[in-house]
Amino acid sequence: MQKITENEYRKAAERIEELLLLVDENSPKENTNLQELVTLSDLVENYETEHYPIGTPSLKDVIELRMFENKLKQKDLALLLGTSASRISEYMNGKRDITIEIARALHKKLNIDSDIILQG
């Protein structure tokens, strides 16, 4: 895959913005603007993956996000997971490792990816 410089990356991102105004989901695959958009998008994606990697979020961050999304307080989460609010606090503050039962509950009830739960 072709590598680009930061300057080329910026120019490609600007051109993508222009192309997005010229094509839509109904544009035929033969449309040169659509073809250019696809090519530039791939280049920009590869550049961003290499230079701006997004790490795996922490379990605490994901739990907090799920609590926010589901409008849960710690006591609600404790009830959902079948434990106490103080135990949830210990997990969230890193004072206690989660048990396999809590790991399963986080995965099943909050749809948290097992890779995030099992990360060191």
Structure commentary:
- 8% of the residues are buried.
- The protein has helices at residues 6-20, 32-51, 59-69, 74-81, 85-92, 100-110, 114-118.
- It folds into 2 domains: 6-51, no CATH class; 59-118, lambda repressor-like DNA-binding domains (434 Repressor (Amino-terminal Domain), Orthogonal Bundle), CATH 1.10.260.
- α1 (6-20) packs across α2 and α4 packs across α5 (85-92).
- The chain has 120 residues and is mostly helical.
- The chain has 7 helices and no strands.
Provide a quick synopsis of the model.
By secondary structure, the protein is an all-alpha fold. Helix content is 65%, strand content 0%. It folds into two domains: 6-51, no CATH class; 59-118, Orthogonal Bundle (434 Repressor (Amino-terminal Domain)).
Tell me the Rg in angstroms: 22 Å
Mean pLDDT score: 93
| Number of beta-strand segments | 0
Major beta-sheet overview? none
- Shape verdict: elongated
**Helix-strand pattern, N to C?**
HHHHHHH
Provide the CATH superfamily of the largest domain.
lambda repressor-like DNA-binding domains
- Approximately how much beta-strand content do the residues carry? under 5%
Structural class: mainly alpha
Which CATH top level class of the largest domain fits?
A: Mainly Alpha
Number of domains: 2
Number of helices: 7
Give the arrangement of secondary structure elements.
Elements: H1 6-20, H2 32-51, H3 59-69, H4 74-81, H5 85-92, H6 100-110, H7 114-118
Features:
120 residues, 434 Repressor (Amino-terminal Domain), 0% strand, 7 helices, mainly alpha, elongated, 2 domains
